[in-house]
Amino acid sequence: MKEMGDANKITGYGEHRELYRISTDEILYFEAVGEKVFAYTEQEIYEIKNRLYQIEEKVNSYDFTRASKSMLVNTDRISSIASISGSRGKIMMDNGEAVIASRMYYKPLLSSMKWKKIS
User: Fold this and answer.
1) Which domain holds residue 55?
2) What torsion do the CA atoms of 39, 114, 93, 75 make, to the nearest 10 degrees?
3) pTM exceeds 0.70, yes or no
């Protein structure tokens, strides 16, 4: 069964179990919660029927990186990153939502952002 869509599309289930193909450009972040993985966009939350590591393998070339053991963020949708206590980072997404980068992933996330061209 193929759950991942082609190239830059991800297959996910909406609130009423309808199946959607979501462009990776629209996804702010993926988060694993218990045994489930969700894709968060500005308007919707979709359940993805893959493990987070499987999603990471598929979207690696589309500017997603780990923010924590349970989260992948779309680095193209980050508006700012600030250091907070405990060597963690507060990530502000371009829709105003804040997520936290864990100690283990904060510095690698910063490094991956440094090479990005500021537009």
Assistant:
1) 9-114
2) -20
3) yes
